[in-house]
Amino acid sequence: IEVVRNCSILAAVGQKMASTPGVSATLFNALAK
């Protein structure tokens, strides 16, 4: 674990994420809330 001030990094990794429509939209909509 490393702390970098004023920086955020999010990694989402999962099987078949790239080929499943709407996965990114769902993730970013949840973050927006």
Annotation keywords:
33 residues; mainly alpha; ACT-like_dom_sf; NADP; Bifunc_Aspkin/hSer_DH; homoserine dehydrogenase activity
Describe this structure in words.
This protein has one domain. The chain has 33 residues and is mainly α. It is flat. The protein has one helix and no strands. 30% of the residues lie in helices and 0% in strands.
Helix content: 25-40%
User: What is the succession of H and E elements?
Assistant: H
Number of strands: 0
* Largest beta-sheet characterization: none
Q: In total, how many domains does the architecture comprise?
A: 1
Q: Please report the distance between the alpha carbons of the first and last residues.
A: 26 Å
Proportion of strand residues: under 5%
Regions with little confidence, pLDDT below 50 for 5+ residues: none
- How much is the radius of gyration in Å? 12 Å
Average pLDDT figure = 87
Output the structural class: mainly alpha
Number of helices: 1
Task: Choose one word for the global shape.
Answer: flat
